[in-house]
Amino acid sequence: MDDSLFFEQHCGRRLLDSSQPRPTTRPLMEIRHTEVHGWIGFQLIPWLSASSGVPETELAEFRTCMSELFNNIQDHTEYDVGSVFAQWYPQEHKLEIVVADFGSGIPRTVRTVEAIDSDANAILRSFDEGFSAKSRPTNRGAGLHYLRQNVLDNLGGNLRVHSGSGVVRFEKNGNSHQVKLCEGSGFCPGTMVELEIRTDRIEFDEVNDGSFEW
User: Fold this and answer.
1) The whole model's pTM is what?
2) Cα separations (Å) of 7 from 2, 12, 31, 98, 200?
């Protein structure tokens, strides 16, 4: 955490003067919604490509996935800023990204349209295809379901969501998705989403050097 600049940002100083972000780390930072897409395209994607050896052109699914993640977190918060942290594990070919905000949280938003008994079940409901609390006019109810499908099926990863007192983890098990629910494991006042993806499972054509158009 010291290397990620957590203590410097929130306590005013590092625990050790020698602590600094590693090349495999995108340090903890606050980011405004208006800056998100620029950060993804000009900082996160080039960094991940250089670290993993996967060409930027082949990270289109991941880029879309990250955009959907930020868009859907924005749908559940009244604040204009959130926090993001990324860690690359070279030996495991694994990337972990955590995005968090201090908004209303998914369970509270879901309960504006449905009465659901637990926070974990409310989080799970928000991932159903077609479900929408219509918290914003542009919310069409496709984002979270698409995010889960993309992370698990296209990127070979896992997805963990903590909001309120509920935690839901989605994992790929063969051809199906395995869901693990936990209730009362701490309290998250907003929403925290953790993505784990395996870059060695991204298929790409080494001779394809065409430009990616967004």
Assistant:
1) 0.82
2) 6, 7, 17, 17, 33
The Cα 65–Cα 79 span in angstroms is: 21
Decide if 36 contacts 73 (C-beta within 8 A).
Answer: no
pLDDT, tens digit, 9 for 90 and up, residues 97-145: 999 888 888 999 899 999 999 999 999 999 998 887 765 555 444 568 8
Name the 3-class secondary structure at 211. coil
Per-residue model confidence (pLDDT) at position 2 = 67
Cβ proximity of 54 and 199 under 8 Å: yes
212: pLDDT strictly greater than 70 = no
Helix (H) / strand (E) containing 69: helix 60-74
Cα separation, 140 vs 110, whole angstroms: 14
Distance CA 10, CA 85 (A): 14
Percent of the chain whose predicted confidence (pLDDT) is above 70 = 85
Residue 90 per-residue DSSP state: G
Contact at 8 Å (CB) between 44 and 64?
no
Cβ 7 vs Cβ 13: under 8 Å? yes
Name the nearest CA neighbour of 208 among 51, 59, 39, 43: 59
Give CA–CA dist 182/139, Å, rounded.
27
Q: What is the pLDDT of residue 208?
A: 45
pLDDT of the residue at 69: 82
DSSP H or E stretch at residue 7: helix 6-11
